[in-house]
Every structure is written in structure tokens, then in C-alpha cells.
Design brief:
Elements (H helix, E strand, L loop, with lengths): L16 E5 L2 E5 L10 H18 L3 H14 L4 E2 L3 E3 L2 E7 L7 E6 L19 E5 H5 L6 E7 L5 E7 L7 E6 L5 E3 L9 E3 L5 E7 L5 E8 L8 E5 L6 E6 L5 E7 L4 E7 L8 E2 L9 E6 L2 E6 L7 E6 L9 E4 L5 E8 L3 E8 L2 E8 L12 E2 L8 E4 L9 E7 L6 E6 L5 E6 L11 E9 L5 E9 L10 E5 L16 H4 L4 E5 L9 H5 L7 H16 L8 E6 L1 H12 L6 E5 L5 H5 L7 H8 L6 H10 L12 E7 L8 H13 L9 E6 L10 H19 L10
Parallel strand pairs: 34-35, 34-36, 36-37, 37-38, 38-39
Antiparallel strand pairs: 1-2, 3-5, 4-5, 5-6, 6-7, 8-9, 9-10, 10-11, 12-13, 13-14, 14-15, 16-17, 17-18, 18-19, 20-21, 21-22, 22-23, 24-25, 25-26, 26-27, 28-29, 29-30, 30-31, 32-33, 33-35
């Protein structure tokens, strides 16, 4: 862009707003941007969008090129792996040119083997359950919050959000006639559960802070006013959910905070009965349950911080009734269990990687299980997890395996022998060959001596000679792990010689519960210094040029982005912060905002603790912008986001512009707001690819590999 013709960025008005906590008064000039109903706020966001468009107009050919690359690599008309449940094969499929998936099924009697796409792109005998394209017609946003077929297979409950605010309207369809028989219930939370007879639905409602806090029972066909409130969670730290057990014998209510959980069960054939507490909540006791047959399987942390597996009678009402099956082991984080008639599939983490362990049931033995085996994966870094396994009585287990170079691959595994049968590997068109790429596990060293894992992928002709551009991704919160997985859009980076890596910083769950504990509450700063250490390691080892490193993170990963550019702005050339949690202290100080009270167990409570207040004050990105040169920054958000309000990046960008010394032509600071979207951005697949292409083009341009022709340097 010609510097002489650089557009003038919007300037947000300064309207001082004071807050006082722990003897400190802070003046916030941009808090007025929080009122999204105010015309001047919408006008400001639209002005920011216009400025971003003007500043990135020269990228249009590159955006088109990257979008075309993504589209050309995707098999646009495709079929998911059909999964058998009772007398039907269930699947979704996509059609070239259509934004959303079609959800459908085929009777097993029509197709004894898994259905395949026929010449016309439709499996023989197909019954369409829900066409997302028809549902979304005329809408700018469309998302499903529930898709639940009744036990008899004759009714479908689905819930739709058309704004992005994660409140859903419930629809019940008679699958025999195709008639919509119930649209009475509106404004619910995620998920539903059926009674055994298909006459009742259980669902959640959210409070004014968007916390799911109630479970209701609805009789299909009855007015919503007759619905019955079954459970209300009054502790604002806890959210609730409702589900059905795999064997469809139980309706399960779960209530949980970051540290503590509590479950209730009800026989699905007694929908008007009373729920029974499995084990009363005990502060710090985190457990999960899997009712199966005559046993209740429990994953819990009662005796070990990395959790253990136990079993109990279905009638258990106390943790004292839990019998050990797999004891806890340091460094082996047990995350969950899928129970079947003859086997268990235990999901765990070991050595920084996901694992699935299969255990045969042996009712006569002491622990009730025999010697098991791990699902084998022959790659240096990878992800393995259980797939769609709705049948309780089964001889096979669906597992999903992938890596940074191996597309998502679905197998049926014989539970008795461990033999895997390939069902489908994600097709990647255009001659993709995984042998053209290499992946590695690297280890950086943090300032306190802790080794931090990095997963890295690059073309195999990229040399660690200190010249390559690179991108480092991070998250680091809520014990969530960013596992190595394949991405079609990422190929547009790799094929231009960009090294792509993930920093598995503390605060995530990659190395067990202690890894999470070392990056939360009073230890949160470790997440930020770990990321900088990983960036420095990529430079020191020659994988990335010191002046050509990008960084990217979303949501809590956006907090990470904001914190590291304050901490080490010289280390990064460009940053993409998606729906970024960059005004963390303001949010966590206000218990009336969505999710705040529940988040106190993640960040601490700055209202009550001066120590936590001072700590958050020291790292909250908006509070700590420095008067120096920063990377180029692209902040993206959604107006209807209820998890991280759009106001956080809007305020952050305003403060960055007034403080940092960037040349706006060379290192612009941009805000892009989707005016009809929520936390996940655009929902149609072509829209999402276009957004990914725009974000990729911005980063490539800043890294010096932004030629529209796509030629690598």
C-alpha cells in the first residue's frame, strides 16, 4: 500500500469511566463501547470494518487465491462415515455449492452395508432428517444446538440459533410424516435428552449471564407453559447439562464448575420420576459418570490429581461406593471412559499426547477388567480419540486418528483383536502427499527450567537455516489441549514455505492436571512466558527467521496473544487474535457478565482477592499496552458473541492505536467485526473458508510471502 494514501483509522471518542477496587481507581475511556444497542457503537464498529477493508483491499487477489486453494483441496460433495444405530445408518453429507450439511439416514434393511454416494450424490434409500441449507435459507447465521433422534427413531428434536448468541429454538419433527409437530419451546441452551417412550424431552435454559442453570421437562405437543422445572443450579459457579446414557436407559443431569462436579440420574422409562444424586458435591471433587448395563463407571480425582477409573452400583449415592479399577498415576491423565457391553475405551493423556486404551470387561476379576492395550499410532506426534459409537452392544470401536500431516482417518477396530479396518480418510484433492511434509516434537525451556513441548510441521524442503517465515499458535487455558491435527487451510501456509507450530503452554492439559495447575490462577503468567520461550526456541534452532514470526490464538488464546505482545512485542511480526479475551480484568470484575462467576475458579476472584486483582492487572492486555512498536495486529470478533464480548477487542484496538508507535501503513492495527455472528464466526463453510483466506492473506502479506501468485520465497 502506498504510504501517502494510507486511510485514516477511526478514532473512538474518550468518555472516562472510573472503577475502583482495592484502593485503586482506574479510568477507562472506552468502556462506552460496551452498549451494542447504541447507534454510535454500531457506527464505530462499521467504521472499523470499513477501515479494515480499505487497509486490506490490496490483498483481494491473494484472498481469492487462498480461498481457491482451500476450495480446490476439499471434496465438496462428500459423505461422512455412516454409523449404525439400531435399524438405521446415520450420516451427514455435503453438496458442492451448498453451505451446510444434510443430515440423513438409510434403513439397514435397504443397505446392509454402509451406504455410499450413488451417481447422483445421494445414497440409495436415503431419508433426509434435516437439510441445513433449507433451514438456513434467508439467514446470515445458522447453527445447531441439538440434533437428537428419539429412541424409537420416529421423532427428531433439533434446536437452531440464527443470531450467534447461543440461545436455541427447539423443533420436534415426526419422521414418519415429515410434519413439524412441536415448536413451542424457545430460547434453550445446548443439548436435549429423550425419555424412553419419546413423549418427553429434557432441555436446559440459560440465565441472564448465559449460564445454563435449569433443566426442564417438556411433553411433546404440549404448551411450553406446562413444562416442568426439574433442577435449578443456584451456585453461579456451576453450569448444567442434560444427556442420555449410551444404553439409553438413563437421563443424566450434570452440574459442574472448574473444580467440582455433581451428577443426577433418572431411569429414562420413568420421565416423571425423581432424579437421584450419584455422589453429593464435595468442593474439589471432579468426577464424570458412564452408566452402562448394571455398572456405573466413574472417572474422578478423589485420590489422585491425574484422576482414576472406578466402578460402582447403578444405585450408588456416595463416593464411598466407588471401587478402584485403574489407579491414578503421575503423568497419565485419565480423561474419560466409553463403556460397552464387553469392553471399556479409556481416553487418557501420556507424554503430551492423546491415547485410547481398550480394556476387556472381566466381571469375575477383582477390578472387573482384564489386561488391555493402547490403540496403536505410528507417528511422532498425533491425535487419537474415540469416534461415533452409539451402540452399547458392539464388537467394534470407531477410532479417529490424525496428525499434522495425516488427514483425519476413521477406523473400525475389532475390540477383541485390536485389528483396524479403514473406513475413511479425509480426502485432500490436488495431489496432496503427506511425504512432502515433516512434523516434529520440539522442546523449549522456560525461564524456570520447565520444558515446553512444541508440535511443528513444515514442507520437507524447508531448512532450519534461520530464513523461513513461521507461525506459532497457542491457547493455554481450561486444561484444554491443542492436539496435533490436520488442516486443509494450513496448507496455504506450508506450501509457501511457512513453518507452522503449536506451543503447548502451561494452562492447557497436554501434560496432565499439574500442567494445567501451573498455568492458572496465581500461576497464569507461566502461559505467557512459556509462549515467548517457544517463540525464542524456534528462532534459536533456526526454524524461523527472527523477523518473520507470526502468532495466532483465539478466545482465551486471544488473551495469550494480547499478553505476549505486551511482554515481547519485538519477537513477533504479525498477530491474529480471534475473539480475544483481552479485557480480562474488567470482565472478571463484573459478576453480572456472562460466565464471570464461573471463571473465578480459572483466573481467581479479583473482587475478593487483592493479590488476584494485582496479578490480573499486571497481565490483562488492555491494561498494559506499551508505548513502543508492536506487531501488525488483526483482531476479529462477532457482534453477538456471548462468551467474549466484541467490546474487548474494540477497546483493545482503540488503546493500541493511541499508544503504540506503529507505522499504520507497514504494521496496521485492525478490527474486523462480523455483525451477525457469535463466538465461532461465520457458519456456512464457504463463508468460513473466505474468512480463513482473509486472515491467512493478512498474515502472509506481513511475513513477506503474500504474492497473489502464491509463489514461495
Amino acid at each position: 500500500m502506498n504510504e501517502q494514501n494510507t486511510p485514516t483509522p477511526p478514532v473512538a471518542a474518550r468518555r472516562d469511566h472510573a472503577r475502583t477496587h482495592h484502593g485503586e481507581t482506574v479510568t477507562d475511556p472506552y468502556e462506552w463501547l460496551r452498549d451494542k444497542e447504541a447507534p454510535e457503537v454500531i457506527a464505530h464498529l462499521e467504521a472499523e470494518n470499513a477501515y479494515t477493508e480499505a487497509m486490506t483491499g490490496h490483498l483481494a487477489p491473494l484472498v481469492d487465491r487462498v480461498f481457491g486453494e482451500i476450495k480446490a483441496r476439499v471434496q465438496e460433495t462428500d459423505l461422512s462415515v455412516p454409523v449404525r444405530h439400531k435399524d438405521w445408518w446415520y450420516y451427514s453429507r455435503t453438496v458442492e455449492g451448498q453451505q451446510y450439511a444434510i443430515h440423513a439416514r438409510v434403513p439397514v434393511e435397504v443397505s446392509p452395508q454402509r451406504p455410499q454416494l450413488e451417481g447422483g450424490g445421494v445414497p440409495a434409500g436415503e431419508e433426509v432428517l434435516l437439510d441445513g441449507n433449507a433451514e438456513a435459507e434467508g439467514q446470515e447465521f445458522f447453527a445447531l444446538g441439538a440434533f437428537d433422534v428419539s429412541p424409537a427413531g420416529d421423532r427428531l428434536a433439533h434446536a437452531v440459533d440464527l443470531t450467534g448468541d447461543e440461545r436455541f429454538d427447539l423443533v420436534v419433527t415426526n419422521l414418519t410424516t415429515g410434519e413439524r409437530i412441536d415448536e413451542a419451546v424457545r430460547g434453550i441452551g445446548y443439548g436435549t435428552a429423550w425419555s424412553a417412550d419419546g413423549e418427553h424431552l429434557f432441555y436446559t435454559r440459560v440465565d441472564e449471564a448465559w449460564r445454563p442453570y435449569q433443566v426442564w421437562r417438556h411433553q411433546v405437543g404440549a404448551p411450553a407453559e406446562q413444562d416442568v422445572l426439574l433442577y435449578q443450579e443456584d451456585d453461579a459457579r456451576f453450569g448444567v447439562g442434560v444427556d442420555t446414557s449410551r444404553d439409553e436407559c438413563w437421563v443424566v443431569i450434570g452440574a459442574g464448575s472448574t473444580n467440582t462436579t455433581e451428577f443426577r440420574t433418572l431411569p429414562a422409562d420413568d420421565p416423571t420420576g425423581e432424579f437421584r444424586v450419584v455422589a453429593p458435591r464435595e468442593e474439589g471433587l471432579d468426577y464424570d459418570i458412564e452408566p452402562a448395563g448394571d455398572t456405573l463407571w466413574v472417572v474422578h480425582n478423589r485420590h489422585h490429581r491425574d484422576y482414576e477409573l472406578a466402578r460402582a452400583p447403578l444405585t450408588a449415592t456416595s463416593a464411598e461406593e466407588w471401587e478402584p479399577v485403574l489407579p491414578g498415576r503421575d503423568g497419565v491423565r485419565i480423561q474419560g471412559v466409553d463403556a460397552f457391553a464387553g469392553h471399556l475405551a479409556v481416553s487418557l493423556r501420556r507424554d503430551g499426547l492423546a491415547q485410547v486404551q481398550v480394556l476387556p470387561l472381566e466381571p469375575g476379576s477383582g477390578p472387573g477388567v482384564g489386561e488391555g492395550y493402547d490403540v496403536p499410532v505410528e507417528e511422532e506426534v498425533y491425535t487419537v480419540r474415540t469416534g461415533a459409537n452409539p451402540e452399547f452392544e458392539t464388537a467394534t470401536l470407531q477410532v479417529v486418528i490424525g496428525s499434522l500431516v495425516t488427514p483425519r482417518t476413521v477406523y473400525d477396530m475389532d475390540l477383541a483383536t485390536g485389528e483396524k479396518t479403514l473406513l475413511k480418510q479425509q480426502p485432500v484433492l490436488g495431489g496432496y502427499d503427506p511425504q512432502d511434509y515433516v512434523q516434529h516434537r520440539l522442546w523449549a525451556t522456560a525461564g524456570d527450567g520447565t520444558r515446553i513441548p512444541i508440535s511443528l510441521v513444515a514442507r520437507n524442503d524447508v531448512r532450519a537455516d534461520g530464513t523461513a517465515p513461521g507461525l506459532l499458535y497457542g491457547y493455554g487455558s481450561y486444561e484444554m489441549s491443542i492436539d496435533p491435527a490436520f488442516s486443509v487451510p494450513r496448507l496455504s501456509y506450508l506450501d509457501r514455505g511457512v513453518v507452522w507450530a503449536v506451543a503447548h503452554v502451561r494452562g492447557g492439559g497436554e501434560l496432565g492436571r499439574s500442567w494445567y495447575e501451573q498455568g492458572r490462577m496465581e500461576h497464569k503468567a507461566n502461559s505467557f512466558t512459556d509462549f515467548v520461550a517457544c517463540a525464542e526456541h524456534l528462532v534459536e534452532t533456526g526454524w524461523v527467521a527472527p523477523d518473520r514470526l507470526a502468532a495466532e490464538g483465539r478466545s482465551a488464546g486471544g488473551l495469550l496473544m494480547g499478553a505476549v505482545v505486551n511482554l515481547a512485542p519485538e519477537r513477533f511480526r504479525v498477530v491474529h487474535a480471534g475473539v480475544p479475551f483481552v479485557d480480562a480484568l474488567t470482565t472478571i470484575l463484573d459478576p453480572n457478565l456472562p460466565l464471570t462467576v464461573g471463571e473465578w475458579e480459572e483466573w481467581g476472584n479479583p473482587l475478593e482477592s487483592e493479590q488476584i486483582y494485582r496479578l490480573m492487572r499486571s497481565y490483562s492486555p488492555y491494561e498494559n499496552v506499551r508505548a513502543t512498536e508492536y506487531p501488525a495486529i488483526l483482531a476479529t470478533t462477532g457482534l453477538n458473541d456471548t462468551r467474549v464480548y466484541y467490546v474487548e477487542p474494540a477497546k483493545w484496538v482503540a488503546r493500541l492505536r493511541e499508544t503504540v508507535s506503529n507505522d499504520p501503513a507497514k504494521r496496521p492495527i485492525l478490527l474486523k467485526t462480523e455483525m451477525v455472528a457469535g463466538h465461532g464466526g461465520r457458519t456456512g463453510r464457504y463463508d468460513a473458508w473466505r474468512e480463513a483466506a482473509f486472515e491467512t492473506a493478512f498474515v502472509l502479506d506481513q511475513l513477506g510471502v503474500g504474492s497473489a501468485s502464491g509463489e514461495r520465497l
